[in-house]
Amino acid sequence: MENIKYEQTPIIKGGKYRIQGRSKYFKEKYNTYNPIIRIEGKVVEMDEHKPWDGLTRGGNMAAVLYGVRMVKEELPADDNVYYGKIDHPDGSGATLGEMVHETELEDFIPKTSFWEDLKFLIKARKEGVKF
Q: What's the pTM?
């Protein structure tokens, strides 16, 4: 059987994505290798006036930590880096800012209940979708 590669949907502001892989950094900080991140934007578009060295010298912890991860985890050194928020693992509702490379992101499809799936299928059938 041949492997089928699915293309990831474009990374968009406000979109939710799962961090893929087995980063020790995320496991230690969030108690999971694969937390969900809500993207707030591409770093170069959010901080055009601040190059990477300015972000790290300015004390931006997300940038400093990403720089460390970039070396330790051999992440690509390019401008395809996104800033987003991950829910704090204590369940307080607080979020923590993180920078991630696009290669670390995969589509996040939230689990739905049987009834939500059934409603979707009924609606689709009424609209003429054939399965």
A: 0.72
